[in-house]
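User: Quick sanity check before I run a bigger batch. Here is a single chain. Can you write out its predicted 3D structure?
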Amino acid sequence: MLEAVEDGWVDSLNPALNHGSDGFLFVGVLSGQVKGMSAPRKLRSFVAFDLLGALPPGASVAGAWLYGYPTTLSNPDAAVIFRNAATFEESTLTWQNQPSAATVPSPLVWHLPPSAWGWTAQEVTAFVEDCMANRGGQCSWQLRWVNEVDNTVTAVVAFQSKEEQSAQLLTRRMYLEVHYVLP
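Assistant: Done. Predicted structure follows.
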């Protein structure tokens, strides 16, 4: 089980604001008036894992899963996981400087449960294999709402970030599980 080394979220309505130290990671679209601001408002989350040294030399990835525990969910649907085209630093990440989404490997659709408060996992083996083969073990991904272009629906999910310190939520941080085989 690997915890994120970097994570944060960005907000299209507050493009210069950094959320790298927040306790939650938001993904979704907000329509209509939200906190006195007009929408559409897009929320994206970013997460990075360092696999260097996590697998024994010569090990092959047999399977990998990204786990999350959604605690807020409105209009559940799905998130799309993309590989980031570049790395990011959570202390400086904003909507304005977010890394672009890469299309290789193909983005993954993470179908979320119909109600909040429960572990859910998405198989990410191809993403982890790509990290090991082409990125020195550095996995950097972003999560976008599956219908991010639909500005008529409000749909939001929140996951705990690595900064979450609440005793109740501490064990609900997003993590990566990697299974491997030795030669």
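The longest strand covers residues 41-50.

User: Great, the batch can go ahead then.
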